[in-house]
């Protein structure tokens, strides 16, 4: 149940739907398999899988939802090979050249003929909504996957006034300063992984793993003008994560202290264990988000919002 990545969005208005309205909205777009001529489908599934029939799980004011994507896997190499064979057949048969417009048409026909036989794969993306505090956190490091989920949620509910969480100071500038000083604010501790990026147009990238970031070697890179574009951080001994310059949290790991607490609070069945984990994870995010934004100069709220 524990999220592994975080893309955080802020509601620019009060959440425009209630819990019951959200439940009804998601029911209208339930996850389903791809039809024979569909490349993919998006729909809402139960966050707890077979352990619950609810498409919205609620705990202590937090809502958990899950989008399932099913897509047909059609390798480009297979289409390319089939297209080459078809073009060769036409050129030999008709003694003429096949040009781009006809090639594109042939390619579309080949894709449609191969789709029904293609394998499918499914991918589930989770999101936690905190209506009282006005944020939504998506368990993904891919902005496209997060936007797919938000777009589907907007389509179902009719309104979703959200924007990416913004801060007043660029994360790269803050992280660079923290590493230079070997100290981070807001109960953050610097880890031993980072990425250093040259700010020039053709600048290189240095990736450091399991290194003392206070070492002379790292400081020389910073003195030469490189900036920290990704940094491993620990927060309050509750979780660790890699923060990048786009405010994405990757490789999120909730520490054993929280996991043990969830195990103790949960009952003997899987459903109560999942619920306890979700409750603790969500409340931890409610503490982390303001702490992290404060460390980055505070939240940047557009005028008029």
From TrEMBL:
<protein>
    <recommendedName>
        <fullName>Recombination-associated protein RdgC</fullName>
    </recommendedName>
</protein>
<dbReference type="GO" id="GO:0003690">
    <property type="term" value="F:double-stranded DNA binding"/>
</dbReference>
<dbReference type="GO" id="GO:0005737">
    <property type="term" value="C:cytoplasm"/>
</dbReference>
<keyword id="KW-0233">DNA recombination</keyword>
<dbReference type="Pfam" id="PF04381">
    <property type="entry name" value="RdgC"/>
</dbReference>
<keyword id="KW-0963">Cytoplasm</keyword>
<comment type="similarity">
    <text>Belongs to the RdgC family.</text>
</comment>
<comment type="function">
    <text>May be involved in recombination.</text>
</comment>
<dbReference type="InterPro" id="IPR007476">
    <property type="entry name" value="RdgC"/>
</dbReference>
<dbReference type="GO" id="GO:0006310">
    <property type="term" value="P:DNA recombination"/>
</dbReference>
<dbReference type="GO" id="GO:0043590">
    <property type="term" value="C:bacterial nucleoid"/>
</dbReference>
<dbReference type="GO" id="GO:0000018">
    <property type="term" value="P:regulation of DNA recombination"/>
</dbReference>
């Amino acid at each position: 149940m524990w999220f592994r990545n975080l893309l955080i969005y802020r509601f620019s208005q009060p959440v425009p739907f209630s819990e019951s309205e959200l439940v009804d909205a998601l029911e209208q777009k339930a996850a389903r398999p791809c039809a024979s001529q569909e490349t993919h489908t998006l729909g809402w599934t139960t966050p707890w899988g077979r352990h619950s029939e609810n498409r919205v799980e609620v705990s202590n004011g937090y809502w958990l939802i899950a989008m399932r994507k099913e897509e047909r896997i059609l390798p480009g190499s297979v289409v390319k090979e089939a297209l080459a064979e078809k073009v060769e057949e036409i050129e030999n048969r008709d003694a003429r050249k096949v040009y781009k417009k006809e090639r594109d048409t042939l390619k579309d026909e080949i894709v449609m003929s191969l789709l029904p036989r293609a394998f499918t794969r499914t991918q589930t993306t989770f999101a936690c909504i905190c209506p009282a505090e006005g944020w939504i956190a998506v368990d993904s490091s891919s902005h496209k996957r997060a936007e797919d989920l938000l777009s589907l949620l907007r389509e179902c509910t009719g309104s979703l006034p959200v924007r990416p969480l913004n801060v007043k100071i660029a994360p790269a500038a803050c992280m660079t300063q923290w590493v230079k000083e070997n100290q981070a604010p807001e109960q953050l501790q610097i880890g031993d992984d980072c990425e250093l990026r040259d700010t020039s147009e053709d600048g290189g990238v240095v990736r450091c793993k399991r290194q003392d970031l206070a070492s002379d070697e790292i400081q020389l890179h910073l003195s030469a003008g490189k900036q920290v574009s990704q940094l491993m951080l620990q927060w309050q001994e509750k979780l660790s994560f890699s923060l990048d310059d786009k405010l994405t949290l990757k490789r999120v790991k909730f520490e054993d202290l929280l996991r043990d607490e969830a195990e103790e609070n949960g009952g003997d069945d899987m459903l109560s264990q999942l619920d306890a984990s979700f409750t603790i994870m969500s409340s931890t995010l409610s503490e982390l988000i303001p702490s992290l934004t404060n460390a980055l100069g505070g939240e940047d709220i557009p005028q008029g919002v």
